[in-house]
Amino acid sequence: MQSASDRHEYPAHWEADVVLRDGGTARIRPITIDDAERLVSFYEQVSDESKYYRFFAPYPRLSAKDVHRFTHHDFVDRVGLAATVGGEFIATVRYDRIGADGMPASAPADEAEVAFLVQDAHQGRGVASALLEHIGAVARERGIRRFAAEVLPANTKMIKVFTDAGYTQKRSFEDGVVRLEFDLEPTDRSLAVQYAREQRAEARSVRRLLVPGSVAVIGAGRTAGGVGRSVLGNIREAGFTGRLYAVNRAFPEDLKELDSVPAHRSVREIEEQVDLAVVAVPAPLVPEVVAECGEHGVQGLVVLSAGYAESGPDGRERQRELVRQARAYGMRIIGPNAFGIINTAADVRLNASLAPEMPRPGRIGLFAQSGAIGIALLSRLHRRGGGVTGVTGVSTFVSSGNRADVSGNDVLQYWYDDPDTDVALMYLESIGNPRKFTRLARRTAAAKPLVVVQGARHGGAAPQGHAVRATRLPHATVSALLRQAGVIRVDTITELVDAGLLLARQPLPAGPRVAILGNSESLGLLTYDACLSEGLRPLLPLDLTTAASADDFHRELSRALADETCDAVVVTAIPAIGDASTGDAELAEALRTAAERVPGKPVLVVHVELGGLAEALSAAASTAPRPESKAPGAVVRAHPIRPLDFRPETLPELSETSENTPRLITAYPAAERAVRALGEAVRYAQWRREAAEPGKVPEYEDIDEKGAARLIDGLLARGQGLTLGTDETGDLLGKYGIQVHRALQAPTPDAAADAARTLGYPVALKATAPHLRHRADLGGVRLDLADEEQLRRAYAELTELFGRAEELRPVVQRMAPRGVDTVVRAVIDPAAGAVLSFGLAGAASQLLGDMAHRLIPVTDRDATSIVRSIRTAPLLFGWRGSAPVDTPALEALLLRVSRLVDDHPEVVAVTLEPVVVATHGLSVLGASVRLAPPPARDDLGPRTLPTY
Q: Distance between CA 922 and CA 887 in Å, rounded?
């Protein structure tokens, strides 16, 4: 298939897997001379009407000349792409380069005619839109900047494909034909259209897995125990609402049922449609199973089988082949080595996982790359799901295993507009496409909370089985970028569950002001201290004393919630002793009724060894009838909670929907945990408010973008990678209004004196050798040298202390106004993209890692926040009576560096150090710039599924 063309080798990098509008997949690849039979077969299955729309006349069959023309391409001026499923064509597109006269041409002609043909059975699946994205990218690569298409007016579907693409276009009508011309340069609208189509397609591909109408468990054994038999039992016992089948080629021919489930030896024997196949057979048998499923029209696979990339190089190749085979049939895969999937929706009730019990239905979505962590998450949510108004639980659960195909990005696409999910919790061991994840996370977080804990963050390598791009960014930087995108970043599974439970059924706080009340002065003070540690603004705790009754709690909680100086309330409670002590159920009811009156403020409970309080909090508002107490004073516990106890009889009867769900007041066993969750909610709410007005990238009239481009092109002509010299660095930065303080080389004392006379006293003498650069603490810098005598003395001291001048590389600079030394960096990471970093120069950034980071392009709001987000920021704003420095000038510098890197991706690294920020203005005393060919950016290209 991959034959050499007339002029260019087969462009294998144009091959791609794509998700179509209905959630199925197709493969897009160049058409070659080996495709003649496929083309003829494809054309025979196209209706006469579609052929007429393509050729403007009846065209029942392709001639030999047509077949030759449509399969012989030079991959430059003539290109054809095909979308395939199961190796067969379902659609084609081609372009032919033309000149100004409309005749065939070669470069430098930059226009081409484009035409599509889609099989009728696959029309409406978004195939043409996907092909247009890919043929457009190919054309841009070959120097074509504009497409022209002639379409019959009646062919409204194809006209819509072009007009909806979002490109800048012209439309005319002549001789009964609509002529469309459109530029291929991506626009904001074309990218928005592409992202919207991507979201719909990927969300539907996940929905096909999570909401199947029928499921076949392949590998369900006859004897109890094995993985397949266990999953079959879990699906059946969960009450799956669709059709269920057991499949095993070892079944006797006369076996009709297994555990009351229809049994078959092969998927091919099932007469009905099978939407989802759960594969639990040894890895060597999986390819045969995938082929049977593909031929039967199965829509998706959950592969529980192990023995893939987690087992070594052979397994990794086996995993690649599994993905290729499944996608060739239009199927998506969860796994391999997966724990399974769960959907608790009443009209689905799917537990296609190894979890022995169905979790409670609720509004929390869970994604885990690890099966063990998935079990832990389900267990902890089950134990901790109680609250004043019932329990909260899970909407959907996905454990992706090696995530060879379906990843966290896909599940985010599904959760984004899933009406059954209010909060998304994710355990990630690797992020395969950080740029895309950040983009999706920002959009999702604007609609619902997204809480993430990342494992393997200090190991320096992705877990076995995960194929991901390498990133050079430290974990702290990645975390900062995720927070910038609205992600709630936590460090442990416990924190993940704590935050998730609070966000699932409590309103977001309007600010950081926290009221604290309870029956323990000590616990109140612990809560107060925890609030200060989290950056919150607690009010003085109100001690109700240990004699407080339920009415006392109700009255004071009502008063606190009504207080306009309070944004959230933490209630602390310890057990009281005596017959008159407040019971758990009574206290829970008092808190619930008080909280109902002010629904806009979150309420949390910190309890210490209260025995049944957590259960009573769960039961307080349940609509289930309560059993009679067995003894006077006994506490009623309507919903006892046991670890991993997912039996249906433990489920509350309270319906949990967005419109009809009272608030859940979550109970925490420690003040620090409750306040940490509240702190995350406060920061997330602040991000939501700021995200509503994201800021702007300002324009600067003195920026010479074209001049910088010419300079960069000329410099890169010298080689592939280049660290600029001092003069070149100053020239390039100057194009963007960034002036670097002049530094003159001083290889001898006389040269230093000459430089000082040129610059004017007072001056600084600096050693620029790598081990001394920016190290004033080592004595490699002498400041405020007022005359030649002082300069020569300082020169002698440097050479005496550190060696010969050739090793020190001394330079002389004119003294800059005193201020705060800072550092500004920008780098293009191959995985995360362009990142801007800021901090104070010296120990603060080098030793303590006190740096702030933002994704480029940086807005004016980003620049303001990055300056204020480092821990040492008070030094910029008049700490201990010092004069505040010129932070607006600093923000402008950050914006200019961001513009430089964003406008010119060839600028792969910039460092400005030190940048001395004075009370008025700033001085850039040192700068370095590195140029290189820009790394590929797949986030700006056509939609594709990742390849491994």
A: 9
Q: How far, in Å, CA of 761 to CA of 785, rounded?
A: 7
User: Residues 79-97: pLDDT tens digits?
Assistant: 999 999 999 999 999 999 9
Residue 12, classed as helix, strand or coil, is helix
First to last CA, the chain: 21
Question: What's the rounded Cα separation, in Å, for the pair 646 and 238?
Answer: 10
Confidence of residue 389 (pLDDT cuts 50, 70, 90): very low
- pLDDT tens per residue, range 209-234: 999 999 999 999 888 888 999 999 99
Question: Any idea which residue has 């530029």 for tokens?
Answer: 183
In the DSSP assignment, the letter for residue 277 is: E
Give the distance from CA 620 to its chain's centroid. 38
Mean pLDDT value of segment 202-214: 97
Rounded Cα distance between 324 and 27, Å, is: 9
Report CA 134 to chain centroid distance, whole Å: 23
Tokens of 664: 């859940």
pLDDT of residue 501: 92
DSSP secondary structure of 61-130? S--HHHHHHHH---SSSEEEEEEEETTEEEEEEEEEEE-TTSSB--TT--EEEEEEEE-GGGTTSSHHHH
Nearest to 66 by CA among 53, 87, 77, 80: 80
pLDDT band at 775 (very low <50, low <70, confident <90, very high): low
DSSP assignment of 798-856: HHHHH--HHHH-EEEEEPPPP-EEEEEEEEEETTTEEEEEEEETTHHHHTS--EEEEES
Taking every pair of C-alpha atoms in the chain, what is the biggest distance, in angstroms? Answer: 106
